[in-house]
Amino acid sequence: MLNKIWLALVVTGILTAAGRDIYEAATNAYGNGVAWRLEPDELSAVAGPGRYQMNLSFSEAQVREHFPHAAEPRGAAILPATITMHDAARGSVVLQLDDKAPAVFTTVGVAQGAKGTLSGQLAVTQSGADRICMLTFEPVHFVYLKRVTNAAFEAAGTAVQIAIGLIGIMALWLGVMKVAEEAGLIALLARAVRPITVRLFPDIPHDHPAVGAMLMNISANMLGLGNAATPFGLKAMEELNKVNPRAGTASNAMVTFLAMNTSCITLIPATAIAVRVAAGSANPAAIIGTTFLASLTATIVGVTTAKLLQRLRWYRLDDAEAQS
Fold first, then answer.
1. Dihedral, CA atoms, 13, 18, 24, 28, nearest 10 degrees?
2. Helix (H, G, I), strand (E, B) or coil at 127
3. Which of 3, 25, 184, 225 is the most buried (most CB within 10 A)?
4. In terms of domains, do 185 and 102 share one?
């Protein structure tokens, strides 16, 4: 079900981006092929082939006229430009964009594949004594589909970086838990918490393998190692199903354990701390106190709810229903 929801979200995002791109292409929201007329005095130093540095001004009226259908088209700007004249009649222009540039300029620049610049072509014609200079930006297409694609790749790269940052701390705690298991510490812990497990799981023998698997799972969750706790949780469910008189149907012990696993008390949220470290948090351990209180509350509520619902006839499965 969750995979279907993710697929629906992905398809919705792609269709929305494609629809927006189709609309903007139909309205020519980014002024593809529409030329700007530049003031002659701005280009007075451009006399022939060569490279020139100067400022080009764009009035608010020009911006609004050029991008009538784009989001946030308003705003005047005076931008540094590098003009490379190939001959007396044509050249290329690269504008340097800053925070004061119209937002649509930045959008077009990113869609062109550059960040902080906007490129175009310059055409110079002579009409009698008048010199006409026309600037045409490089055309852009599929702006929002490119954004979706770039965001997907950036998110994938971020996931890899975070995963690599988790390797060290996961290896450390998994090693510690394996050493504890081999040294018999888990068995000692099982005997220590026997009074609690007897009350929480009265149907399970205190020396059953399911108890050890549940303790390993709970211990891993207490250290915030959700990935390490998963195999122990699966093993615990497998062992609990062996003593389940109705195999394949969740028993009271399974429901109680699932509530504890989902909302387990977390003493040290190691995984969350590692993620915060990988993300550059200034104080990654600041969440320890709030995480402990939140998980303690969730565990109390979850276990209490499971125990209360077990007493209600509505949530019980009689023999006839179990056999059917």
1. 150
2. strand
3. 225
4. no
Residue 152 in any domain: the answer is no
* Residue 203 DSSP SS3: coil
Residue appearing with tokens 């490129």: 119
Q: Examine the domain organization and report whether 41 and 181 are in the same domain.
A: no
Structure tokens at 182: 């081999």
Final residue belonging to a domain, choices 90, 106, 141:
141
In a domain, 122, yes or no: yes
Highest mean pLDDT among 13-22, 129-138, 169-178: 13-22
Report the domain count for the chain.
2
Of 150, 79, 81, nearest to 110 (Cα)? 150
Range of the domain at 247: 164-323
Q: Which pLDDT score, from 0 to 100, does residue 165 have? A: 66
Same domain? For 121 and 176 the reply is no
Largest CA distance in the chain: 103
Q: What percent of the chain has pLDDT over 70?
A: 87
Q: Please tell me whether residues 86 and 175 are part of one structural domain.
A: no
**What type of residue sits at position 20?**
R
Residue 157 lies in a domain: no
Q: In this predicted model, which residue has the larger pLDDT, 182 or 189? A: 182
Determine the average pLDDT of the residues in 158-187: 72
Q: What count of other Cβ atoms lies within 10 Å of the Cβ of residue 84?
A: 13
Please choose, from the candidates 144, 148, 147, the residue with its C-alpha nearest in 3D space to the C-alpha of residue 22: 144
Cβ-in-10-Å burial (0-12, 13-18, 19+) of 13 comes to middle
Asked whether residue 104 falls in the same domain as residue 206, the answer is no
Residue 69 to residue 34: CA distance in whole angstroms: 14
Q: Is the predicted pLDDT of residue 324 greater than 50, yes or no?
A: no
Confidence of residue 190 (pLDDT cuts 50, 70, 90): low
**Whole-prediction pTM:** 0.53
> Quick check: 140 pLDDT over 60?
yes
Of 5-19, 160-174, 263-277, where does mean pLDDT reach its minimum?
A: 160-174
Contact 209, 242 (CB under 8 A): no
